[in-house]
Structures are given as C-alpha cells and as structure tokens.
Specification:
Radius of gyration: 23 Å
Protein name: Peptidase M50 domain-containing protein
Order of helices and strands: HHEEEEHHHHHHHHHHHH
Number of strands: 4
Largest sheet: 4 strands, antiparallel
Strand content: 5-15%
Helix content: 55-70%
Keywords: Membrane, Transmembrane, Transmembrane helix
Number of helices: 14
Distance between the termini: 29 Å
Length: 378
C-alpha cells in the first residue's frame, strides 16, 4: 500500500533554503542601505520587529494578489468565478454572492472557477493556473523599481521591501513545479496539463464537480460519464488521478461500499501519482469502511499509520475526516463519538458544499446503526 509515494519532494526544501538565503541577503542589504548597523541595539531590535510585522502583513496582501491574479487570468481565458477564498474567508457565487468561513488543508487561498466547455478535449488553462504567479511577479518587480527610485521614508521602505520579499516567496513557491506535502503547486499542475491530454479532461471534470457541488448536487446525481476512470498508464500525475478519487467518492455516496473499497485498494497499491490530500482522504474512506464492517483491529492499525494520523490532525476540520473519527469512536466510546458529531455539525454549517454535508451525515448515521447492531437501509 506504500507504492505511490510522491516524487521530487526534496525540491520544496531546497527552494526554501534558497529563499532563506535570498531573504537573509535582502534583510542584510536593507539594514546596510538604511545604516541600521550603526544604530544602537534597541533601535535595531525595534527595526527588526517592525520588519517582521511588515512581512506577515504583506504576506496576507500578496496572497490576496495571488488569488486575484488567478481570477483575472481565468476571466480572460473564458472561465467564470465560482468561489474565492483567502485563508478561511470565502465568497461563493450561488444565487447571490455569499460569505462563509472555511479552510482547506495545504492551501492559503483558492480561486475556483467554472471552466469553458471542452473542444476536442482541449481548453485554455495556462493563464488561469499561472495567473497568481504572474500577479505576484509583476507586483514584486514594479514595487522593486519603485523602491529603488522613489522611496526615501523608512516606514514606507519597510513595507515596500516586505512586499517584494513576500511576492518573490510566492513566485518561488508556486512558479517552480514541484509537489508539496498536501497538494501540487500551480506550476506543477500546469506542467501536468501540458504533458498529459487526459489531465486536461480531469482538470475540467474537477472544476465542473466543484461547480455542481456548490449548487447542492451530490456526486451520485452528477453525470456518470464525468467519472470515467483513466487507465493506469495515463494516470501519471495527481491531476489525472483526481477522477479516480472522485469515482471512489461517488461510489461511497451511492453506498456501493464493496466496489468503492476494491477501487480504493487499486489506487493505493498502483503507481498512480497522488497528492497527500488525495491519499489521506482515500485512506479515511478505507478506515471508515473497515470500522463499520469487520472492524479488525490489526487492519485498522495497519491503516492508521503515523503519517495518516498526522494527516487527520492537519485536516481535522474536513468533514470526511470527522466522519471517519466518528466511525472509529462510536463502537467503543459513545461520549467521544458524540463530541465528534457535535464538532461535525459546527463545521457543517460553514461548509460550502451542502451536498457533501448530506452525504457525510448519512455515512455517520450508517456508522451509528452498525455500532448498535442494526443493519442500515442503503
């Protein structure tokens, strides 16, 4: 079950080390440029604190610029806005624009859009996927020029310099193609789409599923043709594997548990590339199915590896994770299960995807019925 491990995960640490060197050099140059090395210790400490606060604040601003870049470039490519999220603040286009609070593990923000129709299996995707990187790069370059020629005030210099530094950080983080721990970055997704025509269809399906989920349509009620699973030979990237994962989720929604488990075992033991988020959620489904059926402790122990436990802690607000935790607890600890269900309902109120909430509630009810020895109606 450990075959489809992520490749090239070493690139991220190397890039972060390179950025750390760049950041240290930029701060050293800034302090020399403003004569801070000649200042007394108290003044220098205050300036460093000032700089750290500015870095945090401008990171938030550059994250907003990044997502706006995706949105503008998506609109230019014929997409339509579906949802826009910065950290846990989300705006969703339903009958009207609604504000909600939610978060997604592994992301600081997200601009999800409705794609144009496929024409001969093709659609524009480069500008939309790289729009955030383009926006951060333009901002950093233009502000760098402005800083060099027009900035003479120290406070303004700190803010402008921080904008350049955080902008370049997001350019490196999203503009160099490499898989991150939970998801692939923008450049990695773009490379996958350029290399693999099947990935383009998978990307389109993923965005259409998101659109219809926000409208309240459950996976089991969506077009079956969307979930036609690509063969293993074409599933060379996580973008293509997405359709396979969605097919598993659809089988879970249809309560076709045996088929779902067979397909999930195939994905987990094949050479299909998966993100950490995809793998973690597929394993949650496997754990849930084992917990409500045979409930073999040795099998659960094998599934609940240290890596999977870390994932479930990081994604603790995900409804599928909470549903899995409930299934594990309801046989042995009713009080703990009730606490998990209360937390589930609190987060369900914030969830963008009402259809998913309904599906997960049904799975919780099945776990509850199984725990007391009743056979649920499927």
């Amino acid at each position: 079950m450990q075959r489809n491990k992520r490749k090239y995960t070493w690139v991220m640490p190397v890039c972060m080390v390179m950025y750390g060197v760049f950041l240290g050099a930029a701060v050293a140059w800034f302090m020399d440029d403003w004569g801070l090395y000649e200042a007394d210790t108290g003044t220098m400490i205050l300036c460093i604190i000032h700089f750290v606060i500015a870095i945090v604040g401008t990171y938030i601003v550059q994250t907003m610029i990044h997502e706006v870049g995706h949105m503008i470039c998506g609109l230019l490519s014929g997409y339509h806005v579906c949802s826009f999220r910065i950290f846990s603040f989300a705006w969703v286009k339903k009958e009207k624009i609604c504000f909600q609070r939610m978060s997604v593990a592994g992301t600081s923000g997200q601009c999800l859009m409705v794609p144009p129709e496929l024409i001969d299996g093709k659609m524009p995707f480069v500008l939309y996927n790289l729009g955030g990187v383009i926006a951060n790069l333009l901002t950093a370059v233009l502000l760098g020029i402005y800083y060099w020629y027009f900035v003479y005030d120290f406070d303004e210099a700190v803010i402008i310099c921080s904008m350049v530094i955080t902008g370049m950080f997001l350019v490196l983080q999203n503009g160099i193609p490499f898989p991150m721990q939970m998801i692939d970055n923008d450049a990695c997704n773009t490379v996958s789409l350029l290399r693999n025509p099947e990935a383009v269809r998978s990307f389109w399906v993923q965005l259409k599923v998101n659109e219809w989920s926000i409208k309240g349509v459950r996976l089991k009620d969506m077009l079956a043709e969307w979930f036609a699973v690509p063969c293993d030979e074409t599933a060379t990237d996580s973008m293509t594997t997405t359709v396979g994962v969605l097919a598993c989720n659809r089988l879970m929604d249809e309560k076709r548990f045996e088929e779902a488990e067979q397909w999930m075992q195939h994905i987990l033991t094949s050479d299909c590339e998966m993100t950490g988020l995809q793998r973690g959620l597929v394993l949650c489904n496997c754990i849930y199915l084992e917990a409500i059926a045979a409930n073999r402790q040795e099998r659960l122990h094998a599934l609940l590896t240290a890596q999977q436990k870390r994932f479930m802690r990081k994604a603790s607000t995900n409804l599928s994770v909470m549903r899995t935790e409930y299934a594990l607890a309801c046989r042995e600890n009713k009080q703990k299960a009730d606490a998990i269900q209360t937390r589930f309902e609190a987060y369900a109120k914030k969830c963008l995807y009402l259809a998913d909430v309904q599906s997960e509630r049904e799975l919780i009810e099945i776990a509850e019925q199984k725990a007391i020895g009743k056979e649920p109606e499927l």
